[in-house]
Specification:
CATH class: Mainly Alpha
Largest sheet: 6 strands, mixed
Radius of gyration: 21 Å
Strand content: 5-15%
Shape: globular
Order of helices and strands: HEHEEHEHHHHEHHHHHHHHEEEEHHEE
CATH superfamily: Cytochrome P450
Number of domains: 1
Number of helices: 17
Amino acid sequence: MDAETLATLERVPEDFMQRPYEVLEEYRKRGPVHHVVFPHGAAVWLITKYEDVRTLLADPRICKDGRRMNELFVKQSGLPDTEEGVGFDDELSQHMLNSDPPRHTRLRSLVSKAFTLRQMENYRGRMGEVTDELLAQIEGKQEIEMVGEFALPLVINVICDVLGIPNDDRETFRRWAVELVGAGQPPEVVEAASKNVMAYSERVIDDKTANPDDDLISGLIKGRDDQGDKLTRDELVAMIFLFTVAGHVTSMHTIANAVHSLLTHPDQFEKLKADLSIMPRAIDELMRFDSAVAVATFRFTGDEVTVAGVTIPEGEIVALSLSSAHRDEERFPNPNELDLSRNPNGVLGFGHGPHFCIGQPLAKIQTEIALTKLFTRYPNMKMLTPSHELRWESSTLLRGPITLPIALNG
C-alpha cells in the first residue's frame, strides 16, 4: 500500500491500548467492519461484532502463514521493500500458531497428546505448591507489585515445570521470556533474547534426547509412536519458543486483569469471596470482561471475503477484536458490567476453530488455583494506584497492566 492510500484511512487513536473499550464501542456503533491504521502503523480490517469474529476465527479463507504475514505488514505499513517488517520470518516464529493446514494439523497432532485435561490435571498439585511458595515469599509485606511479584513468577515456574526446565535455569529463562514480549524492549534486546532461547533450546533438546523424563519437551522429542512421526529439530526449537512466550504472557495478564477487575468492582469481589466454588465460571466472565488477548493473532485474507456486506480483498490483514466481541450487546446483555452471576457461553479468550488454544486446560487450572489461594490468604486487598493512572501493555494484541501495585491487607 502506497503512502498516499495509507494516508486516506482512518487512524485508530494513539491511546487506543489505554482505553480500548471506549474506542471499540464507538467503532461498533458505526459498523462491524472498519479499514483503519493501527497505532503500530499497519492498515488492517478491524472486525468488531461477536458473530463475525467467531465465524472468521474458523474460516479457512482467513490465513496465518507467518512468512506471508511479514510481507503483508511491510506492504500495508507503506514501508520500503528493504524493511524487515515485524520479524515473522525469524525461524523461531515458524510454529503452529503461525501455520495453516496441513502443516498446522500435523504440528498440533504431535503436541495435543501432551496437553489433554487429564495430563494438565497431573500438574494441579505442583501448581498449588508454586502458588503457596510465592505467597510465603510475600508473607509480612504490606504492599506488592502484583504483576512482577506474583503473576509473572507463578506462570514462569509453572511453564518451566511443564517443559522440564531445571530450577537453576529458571531465572535466566524468565528474563528471556520478559525480554521477548515486554513492552518497550529495544529491538537489540529482543533479538538477543531470541538467539538465547534458540541456543538454550538446542542444548535442552540434546539433554532430553539423551536423558528423557516425564515432561513436555521429552514428550515432544518422542513424537507419536502410532504414526511414526516426530517434530524436526527446527520445529522443536520453534515449539519451545512458542511455549516460552504463549505459555506465560497471556496467563500472566489473565491473572493480573482478573485482580484489577475484581478490585475495581468490590460488589463482585465480595460475591466471589463468599463462594469461591464459583471460581471456574467467574474466570470465564473475568476473561470476557477484560481478556488478556485483545485481538486474535493477526490473520490475512487468502481469498476475497465478504463480512457484513463489506468485501475485503485478498491479501489484506484482518484484526479480529476479541475485546470488542466480548462487549457486543447483541451477544452479552449489559456487556460493560462485570457480573459473576453471568454464564458467558462462547467466550473467545482462548480462540475458536482450528487455532483454539491448546494450552487452555493448563491456563484455566493455573488461574483457578492462583486466584483461589490469593483471595483466601488476602481477602482485603486494595489497589494502590487509581485505575485511570495504570499503564497498559503497549500492544494491539495483548491486554494487561504493566504494573499493578496492591495493598495486601487493605
